[in-house]
Design goal:
single chain; alpha/beta; Zincin-like; three-stranded mixed sheet; about 15% strand
Length: about 230
């Protein structure tokens, strides 16, 4: 029996000691990111693990097994398992591998920067000159495919792309609000995610300080809260 399968059996017995042991099928798969999934199929527990984790130490695989099974059966997940898995993923060598597979395997949907009411590339160029001395190389920029109230914008470093939610491409949207959302994502280009003690920091002190230099910062944040 593969060790990965044995790990899941041990985790299952620890989480559900009174439940008959089901059949397990555990396989490493070439996902486009570090994805791990578990599902019930015809009474069998089918587990798909990112092939990036094939060489992970046994304690890391044990943590993944506990996390997946606990989610499946709606059990609380002890924090030390989350912490153990995060620390592994935040190792520099692992982060490099993750970035590589996202670039080579992943597909990034990109539309147009020209929306119905705003051109994101024009706004980017204006912000670049005004706040970044023109030093940022323009990435791929696009309005999102769907209208989202949760993900208002994001910078994808793997594909060097900024996506802004179409919820802002409306005639009544103040132009400064679109500019602020784009400015925020440009700051992510300038201040990449940092890693420390198994945790990621997306918004550093320097990031937050520079974000407040945007002239209509307070007004923009107020409008966003209304969404």
């Amino acid at each position: 029996m593969p060790e990965s399968c044995q790990i899941f059996i041990e985790a299952f017995r620890a989480i559900r000691p009174r439940t008959p042991l089901p059949e397990f099928e555990v396989a490493f798969r070439p996902y486009a990111d570090v994805n791990n999934v578990i599902r019930v199929r015809d009474g069998k527990l089918v587990v798909g693990l990112s092939d990036l984790l094939q060489d992970a130490p046994r304690p890391v695989l044990e943590a993944i097994a506990v996390i997946l099974l606990s989610k499946l059966y709606r059990k609380p997940i002890p924090e030390h398992y989350h912490s153990r898995y995060r620390r592994y993923l935040n190792q520099r060598s692992v982060r490099k591998q993750v970035l590589h597979i996202r670039r080579t395997r992943g597909r990034k949907w990109l539309g147009a920067a020209q929306g119905a009411h705003f051109n994101l590339e024009e706004i980017f160029d204006e912000l670049n000159v005004k706040f970044f001395a023109g030093r940022l190389l323009r990435p791929q920029i696009s309005w999102s495919r769907t209208i989202s109230r949760t993900t208002l914008g994001h910078f994808d470093s793997a594909h060097n792309a900024i996506i802004i939610s179409k919820i802002f491409d409306r005639p009544k949207t103040p132009r400064f609000l679109v500019a602020y959302i784009l400015y925020h994502e440009m700051l992510h280009m300038k201040y990449p995610v940092t890693h420390s003690r198994g945790r990621r920091c997306f918004h550093s002190f320097a990031f937050r300080k520079e974000e407040k230099l945007f002239p209509q910062f307070a007004e923009a944040k107020k409008l966003i809260e209304q969404l």
